[in-house]
């Protein structure tokens, strides 16, 4: 099975990648494609919060995407499946869905949602669109709820 | 069995390094960005300065801008990253102070442009509904764009193209009106060579130069195409072609629109109108209900202004984000919203600065005697002209570096002409309105304050500090 692990550079997407590894059977997964999508018309086309990579003086968003993909791919080092790193460009949800079709994916892993107000107010997120239109099952990894004190 | 793919990503299958902006999209991005800024807002000012022959000012202005565009195209093919002018200055001079000044000037220019466009938006809006005060309309307009950018609707390339089509259609209405008028046989072509020397400027050359300076705001915007350079497919081929063609098309449109406006509407009427192109439609030359055409044209103008303003609103937080990452302004500007993935503090901060500009500008216009839209447009132009001249210098200085056989090479004699052109317009703008320097200084001061805040209170590495990964380990 080919699994797509999407990253938007958020720490939650790193958590999602680790979550897949925590339960999936590496002998059943043949390939993992780590996909980052650069949004050319956004204020920040890609921001990498997953690694300690030095901000390049040229300010390349491609470099930021590359470093996020490298960090996520490193999660699966030595796990078994063949890991591919892919950087795409365009609208995040569309590109993830296209990638899923193109690689004939059996599962798409995405991170979703913050906690609190923004989650309630802002709908139409990437994860929602991927869930609705992906050609295969989708694993949406949400942040753990805050512990009750 | 670990088999992590470490192959060169360039050699990966079609998914490896997929770029998304085509040459055609880049062309429309350039065209939309340039056309929206100004022609709808500034025709009146230019007509007032030059007289009936004000198309000359547009023609000369767009020539200088297109030459500058060719320098941008050469630099972009060498350094495709989004940082634009700041990056080129850094590569050419390697002087941190100069790079910082360039970046802050660009940020200030972008903020002043947003202010001018928001004011222009309110002038047109009053044609539809004149109850709310213009300042309130500008502020609400700005707030809506900031929120739209935060949510991320601005990211659709298709919407950008649609808005550009609408924008061009508005200008086509003006041109068709002009052609219709000529066909009726009433046109007096003498007006097209009439340079008004009875007003402020008694020398025809000076009057034209003034016109270029006032019209130059309409030429700006192309520098923002560096935003998408990194994501352009085959940039070596597409970037120079799309950027320069976009500017030439914009230039032709400007000249034709100016001629149509000059032929159909008395220059005095244009000069007195805050939404001058609307006067062309109001003449009722076209055999369609004037009321309907006026409404339609107003809506088109509003969309055109919105399109360009959106790009400026997207650009400002990007600049602040880059500066925060470089540790020259406080690290909070590099904060990315966890779900929206936008630099929300930088975004709302730039919105607040522009809002302050609008409020201050509305409190003092009587003292200064210059309308706000003109003032802010001039501030943008002064800052951008300095940057444009500097970018051409960088282009010449970086010749021979980082080149390969695919690098686009701009015409060298034209580049020298471009430096002279930019500086001449800059010199006139400052001579004509020294007060604009105060506004420039105030806006640059915002950058200075942020720098000091980072210098004294910021900790080194705030921007690029690694996040605390502990809280994501456990699911």
How would you describe the overall organization of this protein?
The complex is a heterodimer of chains A (about 150) and B (about 475). In chain A, α2 links the parallel β2 (about 30-40) and β3. Chain A contains five helices and five strands. By secondary structure, chain A is an alpha/beta fold. Chain A has a single domain, classed as Rossmann fold. By secondary structure, chain B is mainly alpha-helical. Chain B has helices at about 25-35, 40-50, 55-80, 85-95, 95-130, 135-150, 155-185, 205-215, 235-265, 265-270, 275-280, 290-325, 345-365, 365-370, 370-395, 410-430, 435-455, 470-475. The longest helix of chain B has about 35 residues, at about 290-325. The radius of gyration of chain B is 23 Å and the shape is globular. Chain B starts with about 20 loop residues before the first helix and ends with a helix. The chains are: A alpha/beta (about 150), B mainly alpha (about 475). Chains A and B meet through α1, β2, α2, β3 and α3 of A and α12 and α18 of B.
In short:
The complex is a heterodimer of chains A (149) and B (475). With 149 residues, chain A is an alpha/beta fold. In chain A, 35% of the residues lie in helices and 21% in strands.
Average pLDDT of chain A? 85
CATH hierarchy: architecture of chain A: 3-Layer(aba) Sandwich
Query: Helical residue percent of chain A?
Result: 25-40%
Helical coverage of chain B, percent range? 55-70%
Percent range for β-strand residues of chain A: 15-25%
Cα gyration radius of chain A (Å)? 15 Å
Secondary structure tally, helices of chain B: 18
CATH topology of chain B: Amino acid/polyamine transporter I
Name given to the CATH homologous superfamily of chain A = HUPs
- The backbone outline of chain A, from C-alpha atoms, is globular
- Write down the oligomeric state: heterodimer
The appropriate CATH architecture of chain B is Up-down Bundle
For this structure, what is the CATH homologous superfamily of chain B? Amino acid/polyamine transporter I
């Amino acid at each position: 099975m080919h699994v797509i692990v999407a990253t938007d550079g958020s720490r939650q997407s790193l958590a999602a990648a680790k979550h897949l590894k925590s339960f999936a059977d590496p002998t059943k997964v043949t390939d993992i494609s780590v996909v980052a999508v650069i949004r050319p018309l956004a204020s920040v086309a890609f921001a990498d919060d997953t690694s300690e990579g030095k901000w390049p003086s040229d300010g390349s968003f491609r470099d930021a995407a590359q470093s996020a993909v490298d960090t996520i791919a490193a999660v699966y080092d030595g796990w078994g499946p063949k890991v591919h790193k892919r950087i795409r460009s365009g609208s995040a949800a569309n590109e993830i869905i296209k990638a899923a079709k193109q690689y004939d994916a059996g599962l798409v892993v995405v991170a979703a949602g913050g906690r609190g107000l923004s989650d309630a107010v802002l709908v139409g997120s990437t994860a929602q669109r991927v869930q609705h239109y992906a050609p295969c099952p989708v694993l949406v990894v949400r942040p753990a709820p805050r512990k009750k004190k | 069995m670990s088999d992590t793919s470490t192959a060169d990503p360039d050699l990966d299958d079609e998914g490896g390094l997929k770029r998304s902006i085509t040459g055609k999209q880049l062309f429309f991005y350039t065209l939309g960005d340039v056309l929206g800024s100004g022609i709808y807002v500034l025709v009146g000012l230019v007509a007032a300065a030059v007289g009936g022959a004000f198309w000359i000012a547009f023609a000369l202005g767009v020539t200088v801008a297109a030459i500058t565009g060719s320098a941008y195209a050469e630099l972009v093919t060498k350094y495709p990253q989004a940082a634009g002018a700041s990056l080129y200055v850094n590569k050419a001079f390697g002087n941190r102070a100069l790079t910082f000044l360039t970046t802050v000037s660009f940020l200030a220019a972008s903020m002043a442009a947003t202010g001018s466009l928001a004011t222009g938006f309110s002038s047109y809006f009053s044609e539809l509904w004149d109850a709310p005060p213009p300042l309130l309309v500008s502020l609400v307009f700005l707030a809506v764009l900031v929120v739209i950018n935060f949510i991320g609707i601005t990211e659709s390339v298709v919407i950008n193209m649609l808005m550009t089509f609408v924008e061009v259609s508005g200008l086509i209405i003006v041109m068709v009106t002009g052609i219709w008028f000529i066909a009726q046989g009433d046109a007096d072509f003498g007006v097209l060579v009439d340079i008004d020397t009875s007003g402020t400027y008694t020398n025809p050359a000076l009057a034209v130069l003034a016109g270029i300076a006032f019209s130059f705001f309409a030429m700006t915007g192309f520098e923002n195409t560096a935003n998408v350079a990194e994501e352009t497919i085959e940039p070596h081929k597409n970037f120079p072609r799309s950027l320069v063609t976009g500017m030439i098309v914009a230039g032709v449109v400007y000249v034709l629109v100016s001629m149509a406006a000059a032929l159909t509407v008395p220059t005095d009427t244009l000069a007195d109108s805050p939404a001058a192109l609307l006067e062309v439609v109001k003449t009722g030359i076209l055999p369609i209900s004037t009321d309907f055409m006026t409404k339609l044209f107003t809506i088109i103008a509003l969309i055109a202004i919105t399109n360009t303003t959106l790009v400026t609103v997207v650009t400002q937080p990007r600049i602040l984000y880059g500066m925060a990452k470089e540790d020259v302004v406080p690290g909070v500007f590099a904060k990315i919203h966890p779900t929206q993935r936008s630099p929300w503090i930088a975004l709302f901060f730039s919105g607040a600065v522009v809002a302050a500009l609008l409020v201050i500008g509305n409190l003092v216009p009587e003292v200064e005697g210059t309308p706000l839209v003109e003032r802010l447009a001039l501030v943008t132009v002064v800052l951008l002209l300095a940057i444009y001249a500097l970018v051409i210098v960088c282009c010449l200085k970086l010749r021979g570096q980082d080149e390969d056989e695919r690098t686009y090479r701009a015409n060298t004699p034209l580049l020298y002409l471009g430096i002279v052109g930019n500086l001449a317009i800059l010199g006139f703008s400052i001579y004509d309105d020294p007060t604009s320097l105060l506004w420039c200084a105030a806006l640059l001061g915002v950058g200075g304050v942020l720098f000091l805040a980072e210098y004294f209170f910021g900790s080194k590495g705030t921007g690029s500090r690694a996040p605390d990964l502990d809280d994501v380990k456990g699911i």
